[in-house]
């Protein structure tokens, strides 16, 4: 009897951060996450352009080259998440609600209407999580060793963000619903600007 192990594993190549200064400026970059092990190799968010010299080395530490990445899932269009698309010209790219492949072939899908996008049925699902921006998405990776992992972009800034996420949100009421759906679905959340964290639920929920 053999029991198959998890197909995909999730690796945070770079933990995002956000450090405000007294003058109102913020030093920030988004988390960059690699999903591999199955037939697809995904990068979720690419960091800011200042990460460009370091990103190939972060991938290489996991035996991956930029050309091995089959899919990019960029949670939203802010510069600290979308800054290195040009390193992956061969990948199918989802940026918010824009899905393209090859030399600019844009593909139809239902994300703007609330319909998730299955990248690998039963394993990899992109779900719309609007609020921080209107066209914001998260990736759900099911069946990992930790259960379902939500790579959530800035739907969650970090694990203790309850006092701050609304200030950064285009639509706070909508984002609150997106956050609740992710927390009800995932065992682990990879936020946009902090360490991954486990979701704790009350008994009976």
TrEMBL record:
SMART domains linked to this entry: Lactamase_B
UniProt cross-references to SUPFAM superfamilies, sorted A to Z: Metallo-hydrolase/oxidoreductase (SSF56281)
Gene Ontology cellular component terms for the protein in this record: cytosol
CDD domains from the UniProt entry: MBLAC1-like_MBL-fold (cd07711)
InterPro entries tied to this protein: MBLAC1, Metallo-B-lactamas, RibonucZ/Hydroxyglut_hydro
Catalytic function, reaction form: a ribonucleotidyl-ribonucleotide-RNA + H2O = a 3'-end ribonucleotide-RNA + a 5'-end 5'-phospho-ribonucleoside-RNA + H(+)
Occurrences of domain Metallo-beta-lactamase (ranges): 29-193
A Pfam entry, by short name: Lactamase_B
Superkingdom of the organism of origin: Eukaryota
Compartments where found: Cytoplasm, Cytosol
Function: Endoribonuclease that catalyzes the hydrolysis of histone-coding pre-mRNA 3'-end. Involved in histone pre-mRNA processing during the S-phase of the cell cycle, which is required for entering/progressing through S-phase. Cleaves histone pre-mRNA at a major and a minor cleavage site after the 5'-ACCCA-3' and the 5'-ACCCACA-3' sequence, respectively, and located downstream of the stem-loop. May require the presence of the HDE element located at the histone pre-RNA 3'-end to avoid non-specific cleavage.
Quaternary state and interactors: Homodimer.
Family indicated by similarity: Belongs to the metallo-beta-lactamase superfamily. Glyoxalase II family.
Protein name: Metallo-beta-lactamase domain-containing protein 1
Source organism of this protein record: Rhipidura dahli
Taxonomic path: Eukaryota, Metazoa, Chordata, Craniata, Vertebrata
Gene: Mblac1
